[in-house]
Amino acid sequence: MPTATEGEEPYRYAHLLPYFSQDRYPPLTPFEHIDPGHRALLLENPRAFLDKASRVIELTPSFGTEVFGVNLAELDNSGRDQVALEVARRGVMVFHDQQDFFDRGPDFYREWGSYFGRLHIHPTSGHPKGYPDVHLVYRDAKTTYNYERDETITTTLWHSDISYELQPPGLTTFFLLALPETGGDTLFASQVMTLKRLSPPVVAFLRTLKALHSGIEQANFSRSGKRGATVRREPVEHVHPVVRRHPVTGEEALYVNRQFTRHIVGLKREESDAILKFLFDHIDKSADNQVRVKWAPNTVVLWDNRITAHSAVVDFKDTGELRHGARVTPQAERPIPALDGLEL
Ligand SMILES: [Fe+2]
């Protein structure tokens, strides 16, 4: 267990440092997901939770919002429903000055996340002792417990979290308990936008496809001795539509990612490789579909994993600074194909 300190003071979030239990978990079982965003659709003003905001900044015209002056921790259930819908519409939302949220601690993080769906317990990552459903990222001068590779020329690795699960996550909450002075930003891409950039015949073809997503490489990373060297649940692979439909907004989004998508079902190897490489490169390169979140103390970021991709930026290695983050990851529905009747 690391013993991070901030200056001379004992580390404020020492109780949330990563722990790698040797517990073993059975396979996940399917469940019915009811998305809270549906309830907000019925409201006269589904954005009323923003009424008290001192500032709302749209990061780009159709993707990403930054909010000042709204205390997430104090929202009632209707406010939480509205948050779910607004994040589904904007893809990613950055909430500043959430000291209250941070201070309420891990039981609250868990209660908050559970409102939006069944919390996922990560098969390999570190978690605070006693809170296996709080996923941690962690890097300090000597150690990283992240899925980070050092044989590539960039640390950018676009992905949608745990897309290998049968029911991957929906609204996801992430915040940094400790962060470098500068650097360690997070990149987000709108998969609604990446899809929209493509021509209609290509979109029509992609809607007919489904792809295999795999957790095996991530598990092997841990089995090779990295990241706490623990695999608590056997890795799984699942087939998802290449274009999925959001259950609340009805919007279509591209649903492949370089980290976990391996193969397009039914295509020859070269065909699958060529199409996936084209799509991954498109996600990588299109700054017109992206935003970059610069972290500040007490910032909480929410995103909808069904319609976005993201990547860490590990550009602060040389400073040796601590970056310690917590994520609560509610699972959502099994991805809905944009093409009616596509058999999975
Ligand atoms: Fe991630």
Relevant CATH superfamily: Clavaminate synthase-like
Mean pLDDT value? 95
CATH topology: Double-stranded beta-helix
Fraction of residues in helix:
10-25%
Number of helices: 8
Q: Whole-number radius of gyration?
A: 19 Å
The hetero molecules present are:
fe (ii) ion
Strand content: 15-25%
Protein structure class: alpha+beta
Organism: Amanita thiersii Skay4041
InterPro entries: AtsK-like (IPR051323), TauD-like_sf (IPR042098), TauD/TfdA-like (IPR003819)
Keywords: Dioxygenase, Iron, Metal-binding, Oxidoreductase
Domain TauD/TfdA-like: 58-329
Explain what the structure shows:
The protein is of the alpha+beta class and 344 residues long. It has one domain: 4-Layer Sandwich (Double-stranded beta-helix), CATH 3.60.130.10. A hairpin with a 6-residue loop joins β11 and β12. The chain starts with a strand and ends in a 7-residue tail after the last strand. The protein has eight helices and 18 strands. The mean pLDDT is 95. Fe (ii) ion binds next to loops.
